[in-house]
Specification:
This protein has about 220 residues and is mostly helical. Strands 1-3-2 form a three-stranded antiparallel beta sheet. A hairpin with a 2-residue loop joins strand 2 and strand 3. The protein starts with 10 loop residues before the first strand and ends in a 13-residue tail after the last helix. The C terminus is likely disordered.
Length: about 220
């Protein structure tokens, strides 16, 4: 049966049981065939998420799925256990598949880093001029056109936060955890709105007001 890796298969040994539901007649004239098909479908669904490099975990997951009685059709209940195995060739194929995925992931990240670096250069007016001269020394006359096209290019988002941002994030998380009631939240928002207003950040103050359940004292309802 198939695994998470294309073309890599589990060898599956199934031991199953079926029984008629008391006071019921099976809706199929061959209950054993229905039971086998039901178990195979259940096992296949689980193994599509399993890896042959971790047989024990895949086997545990399958047995958890099929180890209790289930009813595929009226009048019939089915349960089973499974033993998994795989060939050395399939195990090697899965390892190669993972290596290629990791290599592709590293190549993708390297390309993202390269593009972010290029964006940082092109977003800086002075650096983009130097970059253009280095890349196209014979086309200096076109540099002004490049400056005009890229004048609004933003800097790339920083992948890593500095210490201050990390401290603020931790403080904010702690603050939100401590604001247990709507009243506490409104008191905090009232103080925040007043502070933002004094600092001249009207848009932020208005945005904060939208989270209030009650209008701020002396203010308007958002």
């Amino acid at each position: 049966m198939a695994s998470t890796h294309a073309g890599v298969l589990f060898s599956v040994r199934i031991n199953g049981l079926w029984r008629q539901t008391p006071a019921s007649t099976p809706a199929h004239h061959e209950p054993a065939a229905v039971a086998r098909d039901h178990l195979r479908q259940q096992i296949a669904a689980v193994l599509r998420k399993g890896c042959v490099l971790d047989l024990a975990a895949a086997e545990d997951a399958v047995n958890a799925a099929i180890g209790t009685w289930s009813s595929p059709v009226k009048g019939l209940e089915v349960t089973g256990t499974v033993h998994l195995d795989t060939t050395s060739d399939d195990r090697a194929l899965a390892q190669e598949h993972i290596r290629r995925q990791q290599a592709a992931g590293l190549a993708h990240q390297a390309e993202l880093d390269r593009l972010a670096h290029l964006q940082a250069i092109l977003a800086d007016r002075d650096l983009r001029r130097v970059w253009w001269i280095a890349q196209f020394p014979g086309r200096f006359s076109e540099c002004d056109a490049l400056q005009e096209v890229l004048q609004d290019l933003p800097l790339p988002h920083e992948a890593k936060e500095d210490g201050i941002r990390s401290d603020i994030r931790r403080f904010t998380d702690q603050l939100l955890a401590d604001l247990h009631t709507p009243q506490q939240r409104d008191l905090f928002l009232t103080a925040l709105i007043q502070t933002l207003t004094v600092l001249g950040h009207g848009e932020l103050a208005t945005a904060a007001a939208h989270f209030q359940s009650q209008p701020a004292p002396g203010g308007e309802t958002a």
